[in-house]
Amino acid sequence: MEIISCHTALSCCVVDSKGSLPPVLVGSGFTSSRYSHLHTSRLRKQRASAAVCSAKRYEDVTAGVLSETYDPFVLDGLNGLSGTREAIPKVSIPGLPDGDNVATINSCFWEWKPNFNVHYETSGSENVKSPPVLFLPGFGVGSFHYKKQLNDLGRDYRVWALDFLGQGMSLPNEDPTLQSKDGSQYVLPGQNDVWGFGDESETWADELVYSADLWRDQVHKFVEEVIKEPVYLVGNSLGGYMALYFAACNPQLVKGVTLLNATPVWGFLPNPLRAPRLSKLFPWAGTFPLPSGVRKLVQILWQKISDPTSIAKILEQVYKDHSTDVDDVFTRIVETTQHPAAAASFASIMFAPQAELSFKEALSRCQMNNTPICLAYGKDDPWVMPICGMQVKNQVPDAPYYEISPAGHCPHDEVPEVVNFLLRGWIRSLESGGSVVLPLLDDSQSLGFEVTKDLEFSRGGPNKLVRVQFHGSNYSLWSWLNSQFKPLFRRLLAQPSL
Q: Are 153 and 102 within 8 A, CB to CB?
C-alpha cells in the first residue's frame, strides 16, 4: 500500500491505492483519482450500538432517540463480472474545527416590519473580501440547524442563517389576535398561554399568513437590507424550495443555489393568483384569526406533534447515522413548540396557499436565468427519496449532483464535513470562473461522467468513511439505475451456488 498526500489551505486529500492500482496524487483538495469511474463490488456494514441522545430534561424519551450507530463502510475487494479488480478511491478531507479554530456565531434580530422581528445567526463578518453565503432552514427548525456550517464555513466566508417568520425564533412577540369577546383565554393542554386563537386579528396581522410567498419576500428584503449584495443560497428541505423560488424571482441577487434534499412540493391549497376561482372554494387560507373548527383540529394535532416523544421519533427517522448528536437540535425544537404563538403559526403554515411558482417552474426559470445550481442529496432520505434528486438532475443536466451515503434528510447536520467540503469546492469553482475544477473531479473533462469517492474524515474517534457519487452532465435515468443495481447483481453472482 502506498499513500501520497497533499495539503492545501482548504483541505487535505489522500488517495489509498491497493493491488494493481498505482498511487495517485490528489492535488488541490477538489480533485481526485483518475480511477474514479470504477465501482466497488461489495459493501459490508458493521454496526455497533451506542446510546446517544440525553434529550436533557426530557429523559423519558431518550431511550428511543437515535440509539444505534453505523460505522463507516468496510470495502471488500472482489473480482467483478469481467474478472478485473475494482476499487473506490479514498480521499481524506478535513474534520470540523474545534476549540479556538471555530468561527464565532452571533445571534441577531432584524425588524422587517412592525412586529415582524426576524431572527438570524451570522459568522465570518471579518471576511470582507469573501462571497456571502445564506442558509435557509427546513420546516420545524431554524438557523440553529446550520451551526456546523457557521462554525466551519465562517472561517472563510461571510455566512448567515435565517429563521423563517413563524418558525424558530422568528415567532411574533405579541398575540396576533384580540382576546375573545367573552374575555376568555384559549389554552391548549400543557400550556398556560396560547396566541392566535382570539376572535379578531390585530391591525398588524390583518393579512398575515405564513406562506411561501411571505418567506420569499422576507428573504428578498433580508438580502437587500442586511447582506446588501448577491449571495450564494443553500437550502435544506423546505429551505431548498425557498432558495430556488427566491432565485427564480430575483436572479440579480443570487450567485448560485445549492439544494440539500429540497422538498419538491410545498402547500396544499391553491394560490389565489394562479387559480383565483379555485382558491375561493376554500374559506380559510392560513390568516388570523383561526376559525373555530380549525382551532379544535389544531388542539388535537398540536398535542401530538409537539410531544417530545414524537419529535424524537421524527429525528430518529430522518437521520440515517444514529451516532449523530442531535441533543441540541432536539432541545431547540422542543423550546420552539413551547412558544405561545407556535400552535397558531403551525396552523397558518399548514393551511397557507402554495407558492406562485411550482418547484419545477422555479427550476426552469433558474435555468433560463443561467443561475448556477448544485445538488447534494442524502441518499438514505426516507422523505425526499433519491428519485426526487434524480428528477431535478434530469431537468438541469449541467448541475453537479452529489449523492451522499450514508446520509438522510439533513446531510448538512449528519455529515457536515462532507457537505462543507462540497460547498467550499463548488463556490471556489464558480468564483474562479471554472478554472478550479469541481470537488472530486480531476479535470473539466470529467464533468460528463460518474465519479465515486469514499471521503474519510476524523470525528473524535475512529475515522468515518462516507461514499459520495458525482453524476455528470451525461447523467440519465438508465445510468442512475445501473449504478444502483450493478453492485447488487455482483453480490448475487458472487455468492456460492447451492
A: no
Q: Is 168 left (phi over 0), alpha (psi -120 to 50) or beta?
A: left
Specify whether the CB–CB gap between 122 and 222 falls below 8 A. no
Angle at 489 between CA 486 and CA 490, to 5 degrees: 85
pLDDT tens for 478-495 read 666 666 666 666 677 777
Instruction: Compute how many other C-beta atoms are within 10 angstroms of the C-beta atom of residue 345.
Output: 25
Amino acid at 92: S
- Quick: pLDDT tens for 210-229: 999 999 999 999 999 999 99
To 5 degrees, how large is the angle CA 223–CA 130–CA 432? 110
Q: 10 Å Cβ neighbour count for 3?
A: 11
**pLDDT at residue number 63:** 35
Alpha-carbon dihedral angle through residues 473, 391, 414, 123, given to the nearest 10 degrees: 70
pTM for the model stands at 0.81
Instruction: Give the CB-side neighbour count of residue 114, counting CA atoms within 13 A.
Output: 6
Structure-block grid coordinates of residue 162:
435565517
For the stretch 264-275, pLDDT in tens is 999 999 999 999
| pLDDT tens column, 339-348 | 999 999 999 9
Of 454, 231, 238, 268, nearest to 350 (Cα)? 268
pLDDT one-digit tens code per residue, 412-444 = 999 999 999 999 999 999 999 999 999 999 887
The length of the chain in residues reads: 498
Q: Evaluate whether 416 touches 96 at the Cβ level (below 8 Å).
A: yes
Question: Residue 257 half-sphere exposure, CB side, CA atoms within 13 Å?
Answer: 34
176, 154 contact by CB (below 8 A): no
Name the residue with cell 428541505. Answer: 237
Cell reading at 179? 382576546
Give SS3 for 43: strand
